[in-house]
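Prompt: For my understanding, could you write out one protein's sequence and backbone structure tokens?
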Amino acid sequence: MKHLLVFLALLPALVHAQNATPSSTPAPEKKLNVPKLMQREDGLILRLSLDNYTNLPKDIETNLLGSRGFSFLLMGEQMNATNHFGTAFGLGMSSLRVDHNAMAATDTDGVGTVLVPIPDSLDYKQNRYVMNSIDAAFEFRFRGNPNKNHKHFKFSLGFRAGYVIQSHLKYKDEDVKYKLYSIEDIQRWRYGVTGRIGLGHLALDAYYSLAPLYKEGKGPADMMPYSIGIAWTF
């Protein structure tokens, strides 16, 4: 009887000690909850480009090295289960800049814009036409398997459209510096095809406009902006 009373007295302590003993089964590991946006690649695209026009009027020439533009896009993507194919959509801004030897002037009938070559006798430093636009972009994307350096081969084809929010012609020589703002005869809505190919964070990038620079009948016909550049993707 004495032993039974001692056992009953010690029973709560024994139960408590058993509950405090660590379980032999390890606790399940908690998965790190990474936001979906951080799992995606190429969410930010920064681009430096050389800009130009097709179908330039006679005697009009561009300075390719002086025609430097830039743009950026914030993109969201949806890839398939293998992470090889997918689509992306985003918004951004771009600045297309073409340095050339022409001044924009109203034609003799008072309708539309003509490009008049700057005389060779005039020594000027800069004569650049700039279009700044807000853009929307859509892409089809392909991404290869990562190499030993964890870099993917990447390729994309897409479409970009935008609206010109500001444009100007910037001229500068030894004595004169001025800007001519908002040439009314340009097409405000811009749209064209895009392509990008690269490895890792670096790629070659191209854009070709499907909309002429000027409205129909309001300037030199079929001048199509295009650009080739380098893109950094993050």
